[in-house]
Amino acid sequence: MSTRTILDPTGERTVAERARLARPAALEGLTVGLLDISKPRGDIFLNRIEQRLNEVGASVKRYKKPTFAKPAPIDLRHEIATECQVVIEALAD
Amino acid sequence: MSKPSLPEGLVVVVKRDCETCQTVVPVLRQLAAMGDLTVYTQDDPSFPGDPAAIHDADLGVSWHHEIETVPTLIKVVAGVEVDRTFGWSRTAWEEFTGVSGLGDGLPPMRPGCGSKSVDPDLVDELNVRHGGSILQSRRIEVADAEDEIEMMFTRGWTDGLPVVPPTEQRVLKMLSGTTRAPDEVVATVPPDLVDITVEKVAISAVMAGCLPEYLPWVLTAVEAVCNDEFNMHGLLATTMPVAPVLICSGPGTRAIGMNSGINALGQGSRANATIGRALQLIVRNVGGGRPGEVDRACHGSPAKLSFCFAENDAESPIGTLAGQHGVAAGVDAITVFAGEGPRGMVDQLSRTPESLANSLAAQLQAMHHHKLVLGFDAILVLSPEHARVFAEAGWERDRILFELHMRLTTPAPELERGAGGISEGIPVGMSTASLPKFRPDGLMLAYTGGGAGLFSSIIPGWVNGEMGSKPVTREVRY
Question: What predicted TM-score, i.e. pTM, was given to this entire model?
Answer without folding.
Answer: 0.85
